[in-house]
Input
Amino acid sequence: MTIERELETIDVNVNVGPQHPATHGVFRMILTVDGELVVDLEPVIGYLHRGAEKLSENCDYRQAIGFQDRTEYLAQFNAEQCYCIAVEKLMGLEVPERAEYIRVILAELNRIASHFMFMGALGTDLGAFGTPYMYAFRERERMQDLFEEITGDRMMYSYFRVGGLAWEVPEDFVERTRWVVKEARQGVADIDGLLTENEVFLARSRGIGAMTAEQAIDWGLSGPMLRASGVRFDLRRAEPYSIYDRLEFDIPVGERGDVYDRYLVRLEEMRQSARIVEQCLDQMPKDGPIVAPGLKRVLRPPPGEVYMRAENPRGEYGIYLISKGADKPYRLKIRSPAFCNLSALRTMTVGQYVADAVVILGSVDIVLSEVDR
Amino acid sequence: MIADNPWIDAIVRTLLVVLLVIVVALILIWLERKVAGRIQMRLGPMVVGPYGLLQSVADAIKLLTKEDLRPDTADRWVFELAPFVAFMPSVLTLISLPFTADLFVRNLELGLFYIVAVSGLSIVGLLMAGWGSANKYALLGAVRAAAQLISYEIPLVLAILGVAMVAGTLNLADIVNGQGRVPYIAWQPLGFAIFIIATLAELYRNPFDIPTADSEIVGGPFIEYSGIRWAMFFFAEYINVFVFSVLGSLVFLGGWNWPLGNEVGWPLQVVLILVKTSAMLFLFMWLRVSLPRLRIDQLMSFCWQVLLPFAFLGIIINGFVLVYEWPDVMLGLLSGVAALIAGAAVYRGSRRAVPRQPWSLVSARGID
Output
């Protein structure tokens, strides 16, 4: 008589974060692993909750712009733009053309900078020894220098205003920006050459964390995550705001919705953003007002509510604003794209390897202060 | 013989090895930071000493003065002994490495066998560290390290075995002398490629740094170590890199042989071995900085499905050529063709699993 006994194994809980190099901030995952396989994942968020929405309700409309920078600290201009447009919609303000162009240029540059950050972080999550990070940061640094020259700050720009811009851009803005875009294109090519066709990168990113188009829509994904799954939806095209209806650009779409497609979509988006910036620089009026005329010092939008959504580097960034006629927003709600994208993390990760969990998290491209707000 | 008395001779040679260990480790750490810095458009260490040369010394002093922490839950003796167990094999391997025709501690008849066997022992130290730390990351890392080392030892040994077959000896000095003007890399390109890849895995360096993966398990077995115990793991790692670079240059690159003639004096021999070893070291550093990391299952399947069959193929080719006494050129030709096939297989394989489809760019203007 033979005694057959299966080797008994137990699942182990492994805590990743909030202090962990791969969590992009203070995110925490409680992984249940069976050997190297992830059988369950519980995300824990809230370590960076500062109550940005509530704080904004205690500031007047202009002061609340600063909280947008602190909420979305990798794509500050995009967040500021969305908020400003929301308030302008509420007030029925017309923004001067030159200000619109400068806003779009800065927002698209910021999108490139944010995607550079993604490329570097993804490379590090995949275990590259910091080289993609350094390549990406060289380009990002040039943009930050430009932003600093314009706004006076490297991170918390607070440059857009309801109705226009805070002040005029420097005189050499057009030439500087053209040079920065040219360099950024070279930087994109460098990243492309370093990662896209690398066998190890292919092995690690293809077929990992795949989401079908239906799944992506069901989970409410947006931005590059959604487009990587094959849904051609870009708010700049679907609901053109600002001057996006005058610009020509393509919307890259992935086919398998895996990490590799998310990477490719972002890579192509950077090229398209560079295209947009170049068009804007050509079309931009040489001079003119940068603030809507006749603005009062204290903004009191008429009672009403508005929902403005904009295509941010991470997806659909939404501002829901209720005004009761006072100088402060009655309610300000931020629809955070990274938060919604992150909600699908468990679905994407369970059944994959521990090492993949890190890569999938990296492919979501989270900004924790935006997730927690 | 350095001294007449065999005891004094042995002690002097051992002291030289210990000195070599320290100097080599410090220089390699500095060099790696410098090379990585240059590749990443940085300067690397620049502050301590000229070109930051003394940076490793400063780091070593800092690590020496740090508190030697031990977690409460750790298995005390296992935890505290692990660095020594990991460190000793790398020193032991240095003993039997001949650097030039007469600069060595003890040239063993079975030198090649000895080095491969002893260097594999360091895994015991890693396992002890992983188990003794009472930390899940450390345990994961240690288990990964063990699985990786056991798998990659086989293709490594097979690659070296090919050379031993051709040379007809396991004595490293004889292997070098047997190469003459043409190093074995010309006759064994497949073996050399497998040796490099398997060595990367043995040394836990990118793209095979899975046991210590920074972005997943944060240093693996070393996570709970601090101060000098952690530094010993680091030292052992770099000594191993050095040992395998020397081994590679001896076995495949012709060691101290000058390609334009066999007999050269010892100063030139030292220069030659230094140059060849540096080339290997630079290759390892270059690969480390350029490549992302594989996943543990991919690592395993790569070993068993690609490296191992081709390593056996190399042995078979060697066997045929030696038994039927075909000319040496056939050896290089067949091995080169096999290496190309292996490369093509990897290239195709990495793109096959999920076929890459043509990029679909849809100009949205006018369509939506």
In short: Chain A touches chain B through 50 residues (CB under 8 Å). The CA atoms of residues 1 and 134 of chain A lie 64 Å apart. The radius of gyration of chain A is 22 Å. The mean pLDDT of chain A is 87.
